[in-house]
Amino acid sequence: MPTKQRPLSAGGSRPSSTRSHGSPRERRLSSVAYASAWPTTFHEGVTVRAYSPDFRALLRRSPQLPNESSPLLLTPRDVGDCSSFWGATLNVINVLMGVGVLSLPYSMRVAGLTLGLGLLLGMGIIANLTGHLLGACLASDARLRSYPDIVNAAFGLWGRRVVSMICFVELFIACTMFLILVTDSLHMLFPAMAPSALLVIVCACILPSTWLLNLAVLSTASLLGVLSSLALLLLLLNVGLTTPPGELGSIYRDAPTRWVADDDAWALSIGLTLVGFAGHAVFPSIYSTMDDPAQYSSVLNVAYTVIGAVYAAVAVAGYVMYGDATEKEVERSVSLT
């Protein structure tokens, strides 16, 4: 049976099929988006669409609302607070070149020069490689901003929670370790003051730096940290070169050194060496604050090259100067000379 044709409208043409005009937001702003016209016949009416005034001029001045493809939080590149290539490099060096450099001569003592330098080179290569892998993960999706975000994409919500807790514990323990180290070092300079009083002073001095949310500003403070580590290397070399030959602390002294460890204490050097390269928890933050994230790989290469050179110089110089008398922290050995 043939289908019945719908009657023509007053204009002589059949109504077109219903199509969406404008974005959903434009349709929501229209107060009379749909209306029903008078029927052209007694039995059947024709649905037509009457549009409200054009609000697109107002939409251009309205704030952009986020959707499922846009991040809810602004990145530093959105607000103009970005780190340059050298600023990001200084941040990476400052994160890595910390307390670990002080224990490297002792690591040479317990592992021997051969194994100690081998661990130093191997750990540096592995840390650099994993840092590049983190950058590749972050570059794969603009919504990934942190270490937990990467884990969430791979293992879901529970993986994110576990890794977030691990990162929190790692950073908390690192802060505690730094506070204890700074307090002990100041107590050597000011033995008359109680360690608890020095700890309060250190916390009061460090607290304002925690209010900085922009790593581009923090790169200036990172420069001071890098210069402090380089000053330690220069101080160590100065002591070794100025101490009379044959005395403890002289770089010309024939101190008892070993190329290969002869006991089971070498395993301790693994942790001591790894501390100097641990800082991946903050790499995503450094990546997200770069004005050109494509330079992230170059930043890591330059940073690890500088760090490796300083670490090797401090480790070898400290161990050659003090031999089996090397303390767990090299500044304690320097204070004895």
From TrEMBL:
Record's bilayer topology term: Multi-pass membrane protein
Locations listed in the record: Membrane
Record's GO cellular component terms: vacuolar membrane
InterPro entries with a match to the protein in the record: AA_transpt_TM
TM spans (from-to): 85-106, 118-141, 162-182, 188-208, 215-237, 265-287, 299-322
Domain Amino acid transporter transmembrane: 83-333
Alphabetical UniProt keywords: Amino-acid transport, Membrane, Transmembrane, Transmembrane helix, Transport
Disordered as annotated region, ranges: 1-28
Protein name: Amino acid transporter transmembrane domain-containing protein
Organism in which the protein naturally occurs: Saprolegnia diclina (strain VS20)
Lineage per the UniProt record: Eukaryota, Sar, Stramenopiles, Oomycota, Saprolegniomycetes
